[in-house]
């Protein structure tokens, strides 16, 4: 497993260099004050006054956007040292480093890597497929939450992954792939990444078994990102794919709470 982790760390270091310069991530716009958050998570979350832990934060745009939205503190964690170095640099440039901190490491080690318990653990868009094991992941989230704290995930739908040729069901088998990235400046890169498929039942069961209470599970027929081939922007910022004329599920969000006692 350490070998897979090392491959993904290198792969995400490579992607980070590309992403920092991409129109997709629009770093100049972000530095000028734009939020990187999308309509789904903005509508579903209120972070005011909360201590937030962002797992798999990439180079921190969403983490810092939540700080701008009024979180009391934000902590981002990611596997890629290049992403974390960029996140720290951006936070300092924006003078948000008094309430933002970033930690480099494996999300499955988050409990050992960050201090304290959080009001909100957040993760979004393109995170589950890099994890071999959702049971440990869910227990880690529960351990990072204070009693009464909330977990929120917005993620691409596993049905979309199925239509793109991946397994729908969790098989435990690692999928090792070479390719570019989802940003417009992606080259035919000799980048290798390792991923795993995770079905909805596995995800929900992992959270329940970790002691969390599921409060909502919503499915969306659009992606807020134009990050797959052949999507059509049918409304501003809403990218759809249709199957026999019917929109497919593109994204889901889940809220779960750690019981008070
Ligand atoms: C698609 S990006 C997440 C994008 C996110 N929505 C954002 O804010 O831009 C996936 C992130 O997961 C990170 N990652 C992959 N495997 C990880 C692991 N085992 N532990 C921590 N982070 C990991 C990658 O480094 C990458 O930054």
From TrEMBL:
- The entry's keywords: Methyltransferase, Transferase
Q: Which GO terms describe its molecular function?
A: methyltransferase activity
- Residues forming the Methyltransferase domain are 53-149
The GO biological-process annotations, alphabetized, read as: methylation
Question: Which Pfam families does UniProt cross-reference here?
Answer: Methyltransf_25
Instruction: Name the domain of life.
Output: Bacteria
Gene3D superfamilies per record? Vaccinia Virus protein VP39 (3.40.50.150)
Protein name, entry field: Class I SAM-dependent methyltransferase
């Amino acid at each position: 497993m350490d070998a897979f982790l090392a491959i993904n760390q290198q792969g995400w270091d490579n992607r980070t260099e590309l992403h920092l310069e991409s129109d997709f991530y629009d770093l100049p716009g972000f530095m000028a004050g734009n939020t990187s958050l999308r309509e789904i998570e903005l509508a579903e979350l209120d972070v005011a006054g909360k201590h937030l832990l962002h797992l798999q934060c990439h180079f921190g745009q969403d983490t810092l956007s939540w700080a701008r939205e009024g979180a009391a503190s934000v902590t981002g964690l990611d596997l890629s040292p290049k992403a974390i170095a960029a996140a720290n640099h951006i936070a300092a440039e924006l003078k948000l480093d008094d309430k933002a901190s970033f930690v480099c490491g494996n999300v499955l080690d988050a409990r050992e890597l960050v201090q304290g318990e959080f009001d909100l653990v957040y993760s979004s868009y393109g995170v589950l497929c890099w994890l071999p094991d959702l049971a440990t992941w869910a227990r880690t989230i529960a351990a990072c939450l204070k009693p009464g704290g909330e977990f929120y995930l917005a993620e691409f739908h596993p049905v979309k992954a199925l239509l793109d040729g991946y397994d729908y069901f969790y098989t435990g088998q690692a999928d090792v792939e070479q390719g570019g990235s989802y940003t417009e400046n992606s080259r035919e890169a000799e980048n290798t990444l390792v991923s795993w498929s995770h079905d909805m039942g596995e995800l929900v069961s992992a959270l329940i078994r970790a002691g969390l209470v599921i409060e909502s599970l919503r499915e969306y027929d659009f992606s807020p990102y134009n990050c797959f081939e052949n999507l059509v922007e049918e409304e501003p910022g809403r990218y759809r794919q249709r199957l026999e004329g019917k929109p497919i599920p593109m994204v889901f969000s889940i809220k779960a709470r750690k019981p008070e006692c």
